[in-house]
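chain and backbone:
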Amino acid sequence: MSEQAGYSPSFKRPAEIMRMRRKRARSEAGSLSGSPAAASPGQGASSPSCVRPFSPGPLFNSQTRSGGGGVKRRNPFANIENTYCPSKKLIIYNEEEGKVEAKEKNEVDQLSTKKTEPIPFAARLTEAENMERQQLSSKKSLDFSNDDSLFDEDEEDLASPLLKSPPAIAPASIAPPVCTEFPADWSLKTRVLFMSPLSLSWAEKPKAQEEAVGLSQHCRAQYSTLPHSIQDAKSCSELRSSFQQSLVFWQHPSLPWLSLFPRINAERSFTGKSTPWSQDSALQQSLMSEWSVSLLSLYSLLKAKLCPYFYLCSYQFTVLFKAAGVSGSNSITALISPTTRGLREAMKAEGIEFSLPLVEEERKSRDLDLDDELDCGKEKDDDCCGGKEEEDCGKEKEPENDDEDMSWLKEMGVQDKIKKPDAISIQLRKEGQTVSLDHKPESVVLVEGSDTFTLINFLINCKSLVASAGSQAGLPPTLLAPVAFRGAAMQTLKARSVNVKSQVGMGYQNISSLEVTGPILPSSLHSITALLRPAQKGNFSAALYTHAPTAVMNVHQNTTQSSSSSVDLSSFGLRSSSVQQLQTPSTLGKTALNHLNMNNYSYTWKN
């Protein structure tokens, strides 16, 4: 029996199956002797009434059964696993002629003379079959989907004259909301993998003229207008030039033999490389002097609204400077992550006022929960920048007086029996609450307004900004920007296209992939996706790999200033759609996007 076609060893109780077969044989024998007119006269084996609606196999003819009469029985072994036979043709219902046909008649006749397992088919029932099905009211009809692999029980079909067609029985899909843009993501990406059913080979190996046009358009801040859908992306010169334009970014310093991004936990990428400045103090001074000029140039562009943002990547932390009008703020802002207690103390010593957005958000949430629980109208205690004046921002919360903490012992009269903590223990407790934030996302620092210029001077003069030992010793931080600035070198992201096969069900589907690597800025990510929209006809997906220390850059800034809609951002040198995206406040919090999917020109995402 195991050698028969379609046999499946998936059943667990063969004794139960044999008992059902004997019971069915007795019931069928009784029905043959008691109701000889059960079968409609004049209907042969080739008529639609001889096709069994409850079993995927053909009808055994009268010569192969001892009872005769062509009475059909249900195959007890018919299920999803063992009824699929790809070598056989399906029996379908011909709507024009009103009968059931088989494309290979000889195979059906051969199967009807042998006691083999049935083959699958998807057929509609005629009116005669409906009458026969109503006689078997104790059984439920099976609806076959388009691929004959899913079976859904539908009680309404028992009362309908015909089985519904596959499109009619498919559940009505609820259209998701159309999102033409994804939220702004201020984190830096190290790698993005795009995938699409259409070919992405147009994005690599540009012609010399196409690359030249793309670089020229980037320097002149000119952008081509592309149609809604591009039929042949590989032959579209404007698309290929625009793609090269979207890969450009500016960096300082630029050392061809060193990868200067990322810088945090990147000692392995610097090990064994030539670093002549590590032991030469004069060379280190020269590098820092040029780096300071580039940093001041970037800040001037930011202040003049000629640069939307830039990143400063050191070996310990990353700083994101954003121009006024970006992320809903009317002033220049800077986010630093991660920070340590030593860095925060040094910033306070320089008079830089800052806040801890995530810490404040947590405190406000805790205070609100406490107020709801107590249901009282008492005012909350003010924390660091949580309701004080601006001059108090940047100061960490002072613990309460220790004498007040011990007052409850005096009320109980046991103050002499309890040993009071000494000054050292109290100081360690105070510092422990502050140090616990170090190197965590909650340690992100926000600097706003004129304090950002003070921060620039602090970074230029900060000795701990540059590593004094290790593989990165003496190397200034990396500056990244979407526009040109003094001392910067033009760099391009690396793009590579690969065609792969992905398993889909029982077969394989061709999937084209495009891998983009390098320091991928927020505007670069938006520009690339804006080009893939018409080139891939609105169907692609992207896996995003985030530089972990910058994921918290999407934190809400909680600014109290007015809306930035009135700020002119046309001189940023970016696409108008990219400017609109960066202008809106981010809604991702302390997380970053890790997956994008566009289906029918509508975005969905995960973070």
The CA atoms of residues 303 and 323 lie 7 Å apart. The radius of gyration is 37 Å. The longest strand covers residues 507-520. The mean pLDDT is 75.
